[in-house]
Amino acid sequence: MFKRARWMSVGAAAGAAGTVWAQRTVRRQLDRTSPADIAASARGVARRSAKGVVRRVSNAIDEGRSAMRDRDSDLRGGSIDLRPPVPGHANGTGPYRPAHWGDRSSERR
């Protein structure tokens, strides 16, 4: 009887200790993988990597932003024809184009 009670107590204590250990481990891992820590880790890796990687990435971002601004100004300025193409017609005027669109061929660049 006492053997069973003793091993039951040992098992319960081991289970409780294992649960506490697992919770602490998971919580520590979650803290280590927060977005701020991941960003800091990526920044450190980029700094330690080959020379110029950070500069190239920065240049690529700047070039993308510049292209975005150019495209936006083209769209807002009206220099791009936003009308959908007419199937089977090279010049864009045909029987499928609604009449209210009119002919803007002289406005195109």
Commentary on this structure:
The protein is mostly helical and 109 residues long. The protein has a domain at 41-73. Helix content is 64%, strand content 0%. It contains 3 helices and no strands. The protein has helices spanning 2-32, 35-48, 53-77. The model has no long low-confidence stretch (mean pLDDT 77).
Task: Please sum up the structure shown.
This protein has 109 residues and is mainly α. Helices cover 64% and strands 0% of the residues.
Which properties best describe this structure?
109 residues, mainly alpha, elongated
Helix percent band: 55-70%
DSSP summary: helix tally: 3
Q: From N to C, what is the helix and strand string?
A: HHH
What gyration radius follows from the Cα positions, in whole Å?
33 Å
Low-confidence stretches: none
Mean pLDDT: 77
In total, the number of strands is 0
Give the biggest sheet. Answer: none
* SS content category: mainly alpha
Q: Estimate the global geometry from the Cα principal axes.
A: elongated
The percentage of residues in β strands lies in under 5%
Question: N- to C-terminal separation?
Answer: 97 Å
Assembly state (oligomeric):
single chain
